[in-house]
């Protein structure tokens, strides 16, 4: 399972001038410190958080994973290159 790109989440939050409390309230958390633990990776965002998060951050769900996909593509490309060198 891909992990949410937390750097992107934080970047978008700051870019939109949203506070930790704004984010906490949108996800139904009682306080900002709970949300901060998700953004810092202490807790993992659950699948049901992602649509709300995308809406609040004005982005698409795939944006949370694009860096992971780019890294996977690089890995696959290097694996193909290595196989060609072995053959």
Give a topology summary.
Elements: H1 6-15, H2 20-27, H3 32-39, H4 50-56, H5 66-86
Descriptive overview:
- Helix 2 crosses helix 3.
- The mean pLDDT is 84.
- The relative contact order is 0.16.
- It is built from five helices and no strands.
- It is mostly helical and 87 residues long.
- It has one domain: 434 Repressor (Amino-terminal Domain) (Orthogonal Bundle).
- The protein is globular, with a radius of gyration of 16 Å.
Quick rundown:
The protein is mainly alpha-helical and 87 residues long.
Based on CA atoms alone, the radius of gyration comes out at 16 Å
Termini gap: 32 Å
- Whole-number average pLDDT? 84
Series of secondary-structure elements, N-terminal to C-terminal = HHHHH
Count of individual helical segments: 5
Named CATH topology: 434 Repressor (Amino-terminal Domain)
Which sheet architecture does the biggest sheet show?
none
Q: For this structure, what is the CATH homologous superfamily?
A: lambda repressor-like DNA-binding domains
User: Structural class of the helix and strand makeup?
Assistant: mainly alpha
Task: Count all strands and give the number.
Answer: 0
Tally of domains: 1
* Helix coverage percent: 55-70%
Essential attributes:
mainly alpha, 0% strand, 87 residues
């Amino acid at each position: 399972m891909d992990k949410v790109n937390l750097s992107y989440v934080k970047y978008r939050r700051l870019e939109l001038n949203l506070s930790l409390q704004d984010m906490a309230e949108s996800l139904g958390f009682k306080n900002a410190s709970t949300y901060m633990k998700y953004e810092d990776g202490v807790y993992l965002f659950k699948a049901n958080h992602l649509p709300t998060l995308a809406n609040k951050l004005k982005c698409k769900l795939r944006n949370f994973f694009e860096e992971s996909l780019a890294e996977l593509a690089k890995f696959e490309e290097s694996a193909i290159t290595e196989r060609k060198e072995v053959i």
